[in-house]
Amino acid sequence: MDYRQKIIETAALMFRTYGIRAVTMDMLANELGISKRTIYEKFRDKDELLAGVLKLMAVKQKEAVVKVFGESENVIAAIFRLFDMVCEHFRNMSPAFRLDMEKYYNYIVKNLLESYELLYTTNNLEMLKRGIKEGIFREDIDITNQCLNEVLRMSGERDIYSSENNRNVFRDFYVNYLRGISTPKGLELINHYNNKLTF
């Protein structure tokens, strides 16, 4: 592993644990056992380092999503496994990280999205196609509909995982959307997995 990758991975862990603003370059260098100068040879400033961290997180999320969908018996099982996975991810993240991102560093996410360096971690079109093929989603749904993207965008703009109430609102909204596009087989699966959901 090269220094750049090691710095990004260590920074990702520290940012998620303590918050972004609380972690200084001196702290990061000390944790890595290297000089601060070495960090600045790889990253011009903290903003560039944070952009690297966010891109790494997006890649890891995408890998996890691909793995979940590959291992799941059907699309509904995969979606509910992702619900649990995302909630666990946010439970292990310091509230300071989310607050820092929202208050001080949101422009970095916006820049990465605008430059296509931070891509969506799920392919909603493929998910819908798979659901139709499995007889879980109705064949007459408009798979180009942007409703699901809007639901996911809403989840990114609001701190939906900061409280149990917010998580329940998002879950209910999402599950009701799924019910609206599902066949009787899909509805049966939704009821089954929704009763087992842990958040």
What can you tell me about this protein's structure?
- This protein has 199 residues and is mainly α.
- It is 72% helix and 0% strand.
- It has 11 helices and no strands.
- α4 runs antiparallel to α5 (75-91).
- The longest helix has 26 residues, at 46-71.
Q: Strands, helices and their partners?
A:
Elements: H1 3-18, H2 25-32, H3 36-42, H4 46-71, H5 75-91, H6 95-103, H7 106-114, H8 124-133, H9 147-157, H10 164-181, H11 184-196
Helix pairs in contact: 1-4, 4-5
Which features would summarize this protein structure in a list?
mainly alpha, 0% strand, single chain, 199 residues, 72% helix, 11 helices
Summarize the structure.
With about 200 residues, the chain is an all-alpha fold. It has helices at about 5-20, 25-30, 35-40, 45-70, 75-90, 95-105, 105-115, 125-135, 145-155, 165-180, 185-195.
- The Cα radius of gyration reads 19 Å
| Proportion of strand residues | under 5%
Uncertain stretches of 5 or more adjacent residues = none
> What kind of assembly state do the chains in view correspond to?
single chain
Question: How many E-type strands?
Answer: 0
User: Approximately how much helix is present in the residues?
Assistant: over 70%
Shape designation: elongated
The biggest beta sheet, please?
A: none
| Terminus-to-terminus distance | 36 Å
Which structural class best describes the helix and strand composition? mainly alpha
Number of distinct helices:
11
Mean pLDDT across every amino acid position: 85
List the secondary-structure elements in sequence, H or E. HHHHHHHHHHH
